[in-house]
Amino acid sequence: MKKLLSAALILAMLCTVFAGMALAEENVTLRFRWWGGDERNEATIKVIEQFEELNPGVTIEYEPGSADGYHDKLATELAGGTAPDIVQIDPETFPTYVANGDYFFNLDDFEIDMSAFEEGYIHQQINGYYDGRQLGLPTGIAGPAIVVNKALAEQLGVDLHIDNMQWDDIIELGKAVRAAGDDDTYLFCANKDYVAILFVMSYAKQLTDGVVFPDGKLALTEEQLTEIYEFVKALFDNECVPSIEYMAAYTGDNIQSDANWLAGKYVAALAYISTVDVMVANGPEGAEYYAGSLPVKEGATDGGWASNTPQVLAITKTCEHPEIAAAFLNYFFTNETAMETLGATRSVPPTAKAREICAANGKLTQLVTDAADIAVAISGTPNDKIFSTAECKNILYDAVEAIAYGDMTPAEAAADTIAQLKELEQ
Amino acid sequence: MMFRSAQAVRKQRYTRRDYQAFLYLLPWLAGILVLQLYPFISSLVYSFHDYTVGGKMDFIGLDNYVKLFTRDRDFWNSLKITFEFALYTVPGKIVLALAVAIFLNRNIRGINAIRTAYYIPSLFGGSIAIALLWRLMFMDNGIINSMLATIGVTNVHFLGTRGVALRVVCALEIWQFGSSMVMFLAALKNVPRSLYEAAEIDGAGWWNRFFHITLPQISPILFFTLLNQTIQEFQNYTSPAIITGGGPRKSTYVMGMFLYQEGFSYFHMGYASAISWVEFIAILVLTLIIFGTSKLWVHYGDE
Amino acid sequence: MAKSTGTAVRRRDGRIIDYLIILVIGLVLLYPIIWMLFSTFKDNGQIFGSTRLLPTQWHFENYVEGWKGSSRVSYTQFFINTFVMVIPTTLLTVASACLTAYAFARFDFPLKKLLFTVLIALLMMPGAVVIIPRYLLYNQFRWVDSYMPFYIPAALACNSFFTYMLIQFLRGIPRDLDESAYMDGCGTFRTLWQILLPLMKPALFSAGLFQFLWTYNDYFNSLIFISTQKKYPISLALRMSLDSESVVNWGKVMAMAFVAVLPVMLLFFAAQKYFVEGIATTGLKG
Lengths: 426, 303, 286
Prior knowledge:
The complex is a heterotrimer. In chain A, the strands form three sheets. Chain A has a five-stranded mixed β-sheet with strand order 2-1-3-11-6, covered by helices on one side. Chain A has a four-stranded mixed β-sheet with strand order 8-9-7-10. In chain A, strands 4-5 form a two-stranded antiparallel ribbon. Chain A has 18 helices and eleven strands. Chain A is globular and about 70 Å long. Chain A is α/β, with parallel strands linked by helices. Chain B has helices at 6-10, 16-19, 21-46, 63-71, 75-104, 111-123, 128-138, 143-150, 164-175, 178-189, 193-201, 206-235, 238-243, 255-265, 269-297; strands at 49-51, 57-59. The radius of gyration of chain B is 23 Å and the shape is flat. Chain C has 14 helices and no strands. By secondary structure, chain C is mainly alpha-helical. Classes of the chains: A alpha/beta, B mainly alpha, C mainly alpha. Chains in contact: A-B, A-C, B-C. The interface between B and C is large, with 111 and 107 residues.
C-alpha cells in the first residue's frame, strides 16, 4: 500500500512538471459517478482517458455503480456534502434534488459549447433547465417506443404503423391478435408499470394540454381519468396485454426477461428508446422489428408522449474545480472523438453531430432512429415536476393493478386516484 | 426481571470485582456514546419534522404520527402483513432449523459436508441471484408449475395471487434457515452427554428425552433465536423487495418496505423516521411479551 | 441421537436409512441451488425461456468473462477488497462482543438493568432509517469511502446481536466453574481467557461465521459507504453492471454469485470442527 502511495505521489509530481500547457496549474482530481452496463462503462472510461491525456494533471476517478440503489446513495451524499463532482442523474429524480437544495452549478457560467444542442431541446426542464439555469446536460434522447415483431405482425395481419392512431385502435388490434394467434400470443408485452407510465401518463397529458399539474394544481378531472381507466380496463379485458397475474413475475424493468417475449410470442413490446436494443437482443434470434405508432387522441393539443433524456449530467456545488469539470463535460458532449467513443451507449445521442457520427458508424440502428423520430414527432410537454415523482407513479401503478384485478371499476379507481393526486398538489 | 440471579437479589452493595465490569464494557459504552446515540436520537428528532433528505426541516410536532395512524392508506395494511409474515416465517424457520440441527447432530461419515450442503441456501443471503432464482421458480411458466403440471395441477399464479405471493416470500425466508441451524448445532453440542445416558438407563424414550433434556438445555439459545428472528422478520425488507416488490396489490408490502420506500424513493425522511419509531414500539411490545413468557420455559445454567 | 447397542447389521441398516433421509431432504432443499449452478452455464435464452435443468449449450465463458469484472476491475480485486473488509470486521466483532457479553453475564454492576435494556433496544432499531444520520456522523470522522464504517462499529460492539448471543451462551455455562477459579485467586480477565473462552468456542465460531457472512453479503451499507470502484467488495460488484438499458448476461451474474459463495462455504466447512468440539466432548459439564 505504501509503495503504491509513493508511486502515485511520484507520478503525481511528474505530472506537475509536465503540466505546463495543461488546463490546471496543479494536479486536480475529480470524481465522476454514473450507472450503466458494461458497454457504457467501458466507453465512458475511454472518454475519461482521452480527456486525461489531453489535460495532464487532471485525474478523473470513475465510480460506475449499479442502477440499484443509485439515488439512495446520491441523496445521502448530497445531504452530507460528499457527492462526486460530476454525477449522472435520472431526470425524473433531478427535480426532487433541485427542489430541496442548491446542489448544482449553472452550466451556463462555464465554457461549454451549448450551441451543439438544439435550442428547443436543451431548454426543457426535463433536460436540466430550471428557471433559466442549465443545471444539467441531457445525455440523449429517450422516450416511449413500440417494438413490433415484423414477421408475427404480418402473419396475424395486424399493422401497428398507423397514421393518426387512436387509443381504441389498440383494443381492436388486441382483439384481432387474440383471435388469430395461439394461446400465449398477445398484442403487447407490458406489465402494470409500463401500462401506467406509457399509456396512462401519456393519455392523461393528451387530455390536459400537456400539463397535468399546471402551477402545482391538478388539472386532470375525474371524468377524464375515468375515460383513461376505461381504456386500461379494456386493455386487460380484451387481453391486449397478458394477464396481470402472469406479469407479476416481470414487474418493473424485468419485462425484458419475459419468457414469452424471448420465445417471440408477442406482436409488440412497450419499451423506451433506450431499451429498444435490449428488447431486440432478448427477442428470438433473427427476428426483424419495426417501430410502431403511438396513439394520440383526436383533437389533443399536445402529443403527450414524453420525449426526454435517459439521464442528465450535472456538476455538484461541492466540486472545487467546476471549471475543469465543465471542460470535461464540454469534451464529453462536443468532441468528435468522444462522440465516436460514446456511440449510443446513453441512448440516441443528444446532439445532431453525434447522431450523424453514430449513424455513419452503425452504432445507431435504423429501428432506434425510427423510434426516436416517432416519439419526437408527437412528443409533447415533458412531465411536470409533480407528475414525474416516484409517488405519483406509484399511485398510478396501484390504480392500474386494482383495475386489472377487478378490485375497482374505472370510475372508483379514478375517484381514488384523484383524491391521492390532490394530496401531492403544491 | 431479566437477570434474576440469586446473588443480585441478596446483594446490597457492589464489590470491587463488580466494578471491573465497566472495564469490559468500555468499548461498548464508547460505541454507544460516540456512534449510536446520535443516529438514534436524530431519527427521533426527524420523526417530529417535515424533513426531505438534504432539504429543509420544519418542525411539525406529531403530524407525522397522526397522518400515519389516521390517513395513511398503507400503514395498517403493512402492519397486518408484517405480522402475518413474521407469523409464518419465525416458527417455520425455527422448527425446520431445530429439526435439521438435531438430525445432523451426529457423528456419521461425511457429516461435515452434509451440514455444509444444508447451509448453502443461507450463504446467498438476499443476493440478486437468489431473487432471480425465486422468480424463475415460481413464475407462471416456471419450474414449480411444470412440476405441478405432471400431477395435474396447472398454472398456479404463485406470484400473481394475493395471499399466495406472501407465502412464496416466506418460503424463501424459511429456506434460508441456516443461521438458526448453526445456533442450534452449537447449543446442542453444549448439552452434556451424561444427561442422555442417565435418561437412557431410566428407559426414557426419544420424545421424552427431547422434552425433558434437549429442550430445557438449549432453551437459552432457543429463546434468543426466537427473539432475534422475531425482530429480524419484523424489519425484513429484502425478501419481499427482491421477489415481489410489495405486490400484487400490496399483499407483500411489509413495514420494512413501506419505510424504505418513504425514506429512499420519496425521500420523506421525517415520515420514514416516524414509521420506524412505530415499528420500534411494535417490536418492543412483542419483545416484552417474549421476555415475559421466558420465565416459564427458559432455563439458565447460571441460576 | 439414539445410540442403541444392536447388532452391527441393524446399525448399518439404520445408517443407510439415515443417509437416505438426508439425501431426500437435501435434494429438496438444494434443488434450487443445483438449478442455479447449471444456469451459470446458460445464456439468457436458456435461463428465462426453458425449465430444463441441464443447459443445451454449455457457456463456460460465463465464468471467464464474469471474473473480468466490470469497468477494468476484476474479481481478483473484489475478492481482496472483500477480505480486507470482512476479516478485521469479523475478528473485532467477536472480541468486542465477547468482552461486553462477559460483563453482562458474569458481573452484577450498577445500572445493569438499564444498560441491558439499552442493549436490547439497539437490537430493535430499524437500520434503514438511521443510515442518514449515521452517514453524516461518519462523514465528520472522515470515514466515508474507507472500511472504517465497518471496522470501528465492530470494535465497539455496536451490533447487539452478537453481544446478546454470547450472553445467552455464557449463561448456559454453570457459574461454579469461574466462581471457583475466581476464589482460587484467578483474576477476572484470566477467568475469561482460560476458563470461559475455551468453553465458548462453538458460540464464538458461530458469531464469527455470522458476522463474516453478513458483512460479506451486506449490500446496503457497502453501497452507502464505499464509493470508489477499486474498493468495492463483492456484494457491490455483483450488481455493478445491472442496468435496464443494457443487455444483462444473467449467466455471468449467476456464475459470479456462485463463485462469491465458495469462500464462505469453505469457511463453514473448515470451522465446523469447532462447533463439534463443544463442552460435551470435553466432559467438563454434568
